[in-house]
């Protein structure tokens, strides 16, 4: 059986929207601070303590209101001037459909196939589902909708040639300050029926970037510190979710468990080993995306993000924050208890349309492919 992991169909976050969000927060912060200063100056009834409190409240107010305001503005601009503010999602889905990868795999997991509360925002999920059906991946599961205060849902999806008999989604309780108003960091589960009493239990996920990673994306992150890693807390929630979903449905003799997705942690770091130890200690899962033949103890990986060409130039610019461009790293993994058949492969799916010069790859993340025996 061939699995294809981590084909990002990018969401609303690209270089234009990132800049717009940053400027939106700055604008709202400036306006709110000015307004509160004027209010406190001319309202003689306010005590000094209240004045100080109002000044401090301007910062969280800007963080809370600025991001949704900036995103709303970006949607309006996109509707008017699509070419300059597009992340080319429709074109990327079409390019993925043209690639052999979509037609030669049994299970496909995607992240960042976002929908939102805005009218018509699930059109790309519908388009991707239709393309997968045309490729023979007739069964699908999608992550749950966003919490009432979030703009976007989890963007997670699983497509399969075999029947999905059960599915469930988990939005992590612990969300980073960058995500809790914007997108649902989450996990999606699907039980795939292989027949003859055998199943594959598939978990895909998209966890939060580390604070160190965020500091490379935006200067705003430099004012924050984490006592406990958000992504590790999400890993703990994921393990609880796995225990709940597998329960008595998991026949260790006949079934296989697979966890695959964008972990947003660098290979070999403490955050990576936190996930690896959780999976190995509970279910005996190992990372089969490491380089080398089956059973290898190699601690090297092919990069899946920030890919560069032979000259060291970034292969994808539109989707990647300037601070992350040109720094290859591995963020996408497959953990399983199944036997690996041959080596895993990293597939930087290319854009073969010469008329599209703004984007070079189907996604800023390369797909990760592996073959397993079931």
From TrEMBL:
GO terms for molecular function: sphingomyelin phosphodiesterase activity. PANTHER family: SPHINGOMYELINASE DDB_G0288017, SPHINGOMYELINASE FAMILY MEMBER. The keyword Membrane applies. InterPro entries: Endo/exonu/phosph_ase_sf, Sph/SMPD2-like. One of its GO terms (cellular component) is cytoplasm. Keywords: Membrane, Transmembrane, Transmembrane helix. It comes from the Eukaryota. The keyword Iron does not apply. This is Sphingomyelin phosphodiesterase. The chain crosses the membrane at residues 20-39, 59-80.
């Amino acid at each position: 059986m061939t699995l294809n992991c981590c084909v990002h169909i990018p969401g609303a976050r690209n270089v234009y929207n990132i800049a717009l969000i940053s400027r939106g927060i700055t604008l709202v912060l400036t306006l709110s601070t000015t307004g509160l200063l004027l209010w406190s100056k001319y309202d003689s009834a306010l005590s000094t303590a209240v004045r100080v409190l109002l000044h401090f409240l301007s910062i969280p107010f800007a963080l809370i209101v600025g991001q949704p305001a900036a995103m709303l503005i970006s949607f309006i601009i996109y509707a008017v001037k699509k070419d300059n503010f597009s992340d080319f999602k429709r074109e990327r889905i079409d390019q993925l459909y043209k690639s052999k990868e979509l037609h030669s795999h049994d299970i496909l997991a995607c992240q960042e196939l976002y929908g939102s509360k805005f009218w018509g925002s699930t059109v790309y999920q519908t388009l991707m589902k239709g393309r997968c059906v045309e490729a023979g991946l007739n069964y699908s599961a999608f992550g749950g909708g966003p919490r009432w205060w979030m703009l976007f849902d989890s963007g997670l999806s699983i497509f399969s040639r075999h029947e999905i008999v059960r599915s469930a989604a988990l939005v992590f309780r612990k969300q980073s300050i960058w995500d809790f108003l914007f997108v649902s960091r989450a996990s999606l589960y699907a039980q795939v029926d292989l027949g003859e009493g055998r199943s594959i239990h598939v978990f895909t996920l998209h966890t939060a970037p580390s604070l160190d990673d965020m500091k490379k994306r935006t200067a705003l992150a430099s004012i924050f510190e984490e006592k406990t890693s958000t992504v590790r807390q999400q890993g703990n929630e994921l393990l609880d979710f796995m225990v709940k979903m597998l329960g008595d449905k998991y026949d260790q003799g006949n079934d296989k468990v697979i966890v695959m997705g964008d972990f947003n942690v660098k290979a070999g770091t403490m955050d990576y080993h936190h996930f690896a130890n959780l999976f190995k200690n509970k279910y005996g899962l190992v990372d089969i995306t490491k380089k080398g033949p089956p059973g290898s103890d190699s601690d090297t990986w092919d990069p899946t993000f920030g890919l560069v060409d032979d000259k060291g130039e970034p292969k994808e610019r539109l989707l990647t924050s300037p601070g992350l461009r040109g720094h290859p790293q591995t963020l996408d993994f497959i953990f399983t208890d199944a036997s690996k058949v041959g080596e895993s492969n990293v597939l930087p799916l290319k854009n073969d349309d010469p008329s599209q010069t703004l984007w070079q790859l189907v996604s800023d993340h390369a797909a990760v492919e592996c073959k397993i025996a079931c």
